């Protein structure tokens, strides 16, 4: 019985982990994938260049409306973040005035 399966992206490698029953874990790894290639494997829209310069609130609503498979994270420029890649995450980078400073993309 498959309990869960989910992808994990580390650098340029894609690792799928599936747990069967309570004890078995199977790992499958695809090597050599680039971030832009991994984004093409994600569901829904993956980039929002039209939101550059928009208010953070508008960007969050637009992204989550246009792609229901992602959650947004509003991040202040200069804040350290992890380098992992997730198909379910879009970071919205903002300045002190809550204006979007980078094109929001899946990752």
UniProtKB/TrEMBL annotation:
Domain of life per record: Eukaryota
InterPro entries assigned to the protein according to its UniProt record, in alphabetical order: Prot_inh_pot1, Prot_inh_pot1_sf
Keyword Signal: no
Family from the record: Belongs to the protease inhibitor I13 (potato type I serine protease inhibitor) family.
Keywords: Protease inhibitor, Serine protease inhibitor
A Pfam family it matches: potato_inhibit
GO molecular function terms noted in the UniProt entry: serine-type endopeptidase inhibitor activity
One BP annotation, GO: response to wounding
Protein name: Uncharacterized protein
